[in-house]
Fold each of these.
Amino acid sequence: MLESLAFYSWTMEENKDQAHVGLLARVARMYFQEGLTQAEIARKTGYSRPTISRFLREARQERVVEIHIHEPVPRNTALEQALQERFNLKYLRVAKSQAQTEAQMLSTLGIQAAWQLDEWVVKGMVIGIGHGLALTTMVGSLTPRGLAGIHVVQLIAAPPGKGAQPDGAALAQRMARLYGGQASLLEAPARPALPGERAVDLALLGIGGLEPGHAGLVNSGCMEPEGLPALAQLGVVGDVCGICFRLDGSLVETHHDCITRLDAGRLQRIPVRLGIAGGAGKGLPCLGALHAGLVNALIVDESAARVMLNHS
């Protein structure tokens, strides 16, 4: 008799638990699949709105509901964690290389950057943009949006008629069109002020190195290839917007033909300074840019990330 009562009690408890899980699933389905608000679900079920909120929280805790966020590119979260622990970046993504060609790697970084901008960019922002292939792929991956008051500011320019890659003016104009905003361009030889002297909210930056074929100052037409050995002798590992730096972050005064809008101090005061670069040859330039305070957010690939970790 006692065994029968115990079995009956256990069965009742199990049925009660199953009924509660069913209720959680029903509430979750109405909220996540049918798109009803918590107030609408409360009216349909007869529970209070705070109770519906508790049910939804419980559904996630008990894994009745599992939310999977599918990001645009695969990430190496182990490298992200290691870099974040060392540098405490405002934002960091390490894209998996997956045996890509250079063009595919740049496309991957550009897609990741464009996806993140969809989340960051809001009406009224002032966005500064540099130049380089990584930024070119980013702008090419942007989703058109109508955002009132957006102003895109060109941060660096090469002398007219020079440069093997799309210049900052073309990138600033295209980005402004995609966002429904305005572009402010640099004109040689002056360094004009920002529109209305407004501060830049977000800087989008390429990170140049000194490797042949990947030297930003050369590719942009700001320097002849013959000038690179002199930079290397000074300990320069890279540049951001024409600002050259050593691996330890110390800045180096150099002579080149770039026209820049910001000096290092003004660039360092921009709240979010996102650098985008990939390939093993960009590892040391990324590291130097971080030490110099020219960037405080990064989108890189695994090759660059591993070099950064090995030298930090």
Note: The domain at 77-310 is CATH 3.40.50.1360 (Rossmann fold).
Amino acid sequence: MSDKPSYDLLCMGRSCIDLYSNDIGAPFEEITGFSAFVGGCPTNISTAARRLGVKSSLFTGVGEDPVGDFILHFLDNEGIDRRYTVRKPGKALLISGTGLSLDPSRSATAYAAEVASENGVAVFLDVDFRADQWPDVQTFGAAVRSVLPSVDYVIGTDTEIKAAAYKGSGKAEIEHSQVNESTVEADLLESIHTLLGKGPKRLFQKSGTDGCFIFEQGGGEKIHVPGFPVEVVNTLGAGDGFAGGLMYGFLNGWEWYKAARFANACGAYLVTQHGCANFMPTQDDIQTFLNNHGGL
């Protein structure tokens, strides 16, 4: 048996899909369609070499999803050796309530959660209730509850949790302002149990300066995870920072208290800033913040 490889060139690195506008030169908002092609520097080079007659192989990873199917189909058609091309499912999927407001986003979100759950991928739902995206609170609640059998973890504020569990009884008001606000008159604990009864393992109740509370399916005492006292500059995006921190802790195998405490720190850091995505903390930022605020 020969130890020599059956390929001449091994390219290692990323593979992806590139989307090209079908309306060359048009402003982005006026584009009517895109063409999808395989891309990624090592993938491109392995293709170029293969087409010139080189026996090329590609060392890359693709997801167990339609994008991965698209890339592998291309590699097979090109005759590129893919013994070192692996398929690797993600460890977690996060969906949002806003993604359920209209089709095709609603169907795509529900389908993604269903497929992820069936393949052992943890599914997180950020309730993300934005009142201006919905005709009424009852419609929102019905949509959110419809995906809960595929959801493992729910993240929401008091109002979001009540809205997600709302079935039409009690008072629900939506106030339209620069930042949409809503009030739902309902029992918070009952709402939490309603949502957990649909399938999720845990619910994380975001409570601002109080930090957060963790509730488990099947009852048991709630776990209070303290927050961090800071001077608030801007609250927009704080919940997103919290969710990002919680996902980080989960993906690193932390126990839930530590993960939620870290999430609280990320949210607290962000409210001291002037914006959202551009001001999300880096590892250095959050470690400095923790060092100055008592740690985890």
Note: The domain at 9-87 is CATH 3.40.1190.30 (UDP-N-acetylmuramoyl-L-alanine:D-glutamate ligase).
Amino acid sequence: MTVTGNVVSPSGTVGIGDHGSLTASGTISGQTGVTLSGDMTLSGLVISDAGVVEITDTGGLSLTNTSSIISASSIAISSPGALTQGGLLSAPRIVVNNGSATATGLDGTQIETSGTARPTGALLKTQLPTSTMSQSGFFMATGQVIQNGRLAVTGTSSIVRIDASNGVTLNGSGLVAPKTWFILGLNAGAKAAGTVDVLYLDTVTTGQAPGGGAALSGTVGGLGGDAAAGTSRIEPGSNAAFRINGCPIASVNCVLLTVQGIPAASPLNNFAIGSIFDPTDQDDLLLPLVSDEVY
């Protein structure tokens, strides 16, 4: 199916489904929601002023540089095959899932979303935002991300989380998101490389396997060099294979400190503290500051 004109529902929902390929270059607008399914190439505007936009691809989804997907509430995109992402995605909550396939980002791709500011200090892995626990932000689950050029994120206190089972590559300008809390999730053995400009950086690792790690460069919270590494965090624990600007993430002056655990019990329990006083001694026979065994 090819849709070149406009499909508009001023007060209802628009649903378009095709068992084969679906190409749409016009405007698809549903006041209370838009639902699309098929093996799609979208190059026009898909918008819902008061509802959810759901895009379910049956093959490989292509969002060209001229595409705009906009929702006042949320966008949900799923595709079992390769995903090409370009143009604009705009919603308070955006969830993209293409399984274990590859997501390729076009130069100039834009994301407008919201989120929350990162709490100060160290966070547990379970405390980091995910698509299931957070109502705002951009969340992508994929096999591999290859961003070819600039990926710009706007929105005050926005969240971007990318979970990749095979790796993330941010070419060229990479991720340009100076007001964004960026969470990078990597499975065991996966690698990340490229340039980031973010407000906060948390790296999450799952499992252990040889060859995994990160070689990022750029700024975090406006800081470059080893200071960017010092203000970044990694969960569940430090790992010298994950670096930004050549320094281990969460290192101090590019030195990764070893943190000793807190003892489960007081170490004083291993000491016996007694007295040299013998209760059978008579007070008038005690010698001050000298052992009475000498006499």
Note: Residues 225-231 form the longest helix (7 residues).
